[in-house]
Known about the structure:
There is one protein chain. This protein is α/β, with parallel strands linked by helices and 255 residues long. It has a seven-stranded parallel beta sheet, sandwiched between helices. Strand 5, helix 5 and strand 6 (179-185) form a beta-alpha-beta unit. The radius of gyration is 18 Å and the shape is globular. The model has no long low-confidence stretch (mean pLDDT 98). It is built from eight helices and seven strands. NADPH dihydro-nicotinamide-adenine-dinucleotide phosphate binds at residues 9-16, 34-36, 39, 61-64, 89-92, 113, 117, 140, 142, 185, 187-188, 190-192, 195, 216. NADPH dihydro-nicotinamide-adenine-dinucleotide phosphate (NDP) binds at residues 9-16, 34-36, 39, 61-64, 89-92, 113, 117, 140, 142, 185, 187-188, 190-192, 195, 216.
Amino acid sequence: MQKSTVFITGASSGIGYATAFAFAKEGADLLLCARRIDRLEELKAQLHAQYPDIDIHIFQLDVRDQKAVHQSLSTLPEEWRMIDILVNNAGLSRGLDKLHEGSLQDWEEMIDTNVKGLLYVTQEIVPGMVTRGSGHIINIGSIAGHEVYPKGNVYCASKFAVDAITKGLRMDLVDTPIRVTSIDPGLVETEFSSVRFHGDEEKAAQVYRTIKALTAEDIADAIVWVASRPAHVQIAEMIIFPTAQASAAVVHRTA
Ligand code: NDP
Ligand code: 8X3
């Protein structure tokens, strides 16, 4: 992992943020993007203070904007072009509504970010991996990409799409040394629910009520683990639940 280049999308918060620290600990150089550049600047300063020997390059990017994705990734400084590990993490849910009562804007935001944004980034990065004959793509899917739950409709559809894209990409790269992995968590306490409920913190807190949810660090730990297996070992997918969760909808709450 030492001096590998790891590109993490959506590093300004939650799983992406924790993953930056986890790879920094292993001595990897970090390419980090998100829309909130102020957060990334703060993260970069903290990482540098703790891990002075690694190189970090941050940039502002909305993965929904195909032209911006192409522009920023095709004009990266020379020393940042050889990406060893891509962590396609940028994503979000918006709303928890019956389909017929859902918001068109919420649907478009989820599909544009979770599906199209992931595709745009992947298409920019994978050709270089193919040319070099090495690389690892780690997509952050979800249990929502394996099971639909009530009112999860479009978010679940977007994560089912991530599952299909991961499987398809793995098939398309099977004749190369490139690995493709999906990390599929259940409940992880991040800003995810606050974003889902458009900033309603009370509603967001209810999601993690009386259970010990996973932390972003738990997921980061799994991401570094899959990335650090020997080159011939490809972890295809990993579903990770808190111990109090048994499926998308079965969660044991003590009150
Ligand atoms: P957070 O809300 O804490 O983090 C989401 C990250 O994605 C932020 O850094 C955000 O940055 C970034 N992001 C969102 N939209 C865009 C965009 N258009 N362009 C670039 N970056 C974007 O949530 P999590 O850390 O929990 O979520 C990370 C991933 O994990 C998501 O794909 C989510 O679906 C998945 N996941 C989360 C689970 C959970 O329970 N928390 C469970 C299963 C999967 P910014 O706003 O600055 O752009
Ligand atoms: C996030 C997990 O169950 O809230 O993808 O959809 S869930």
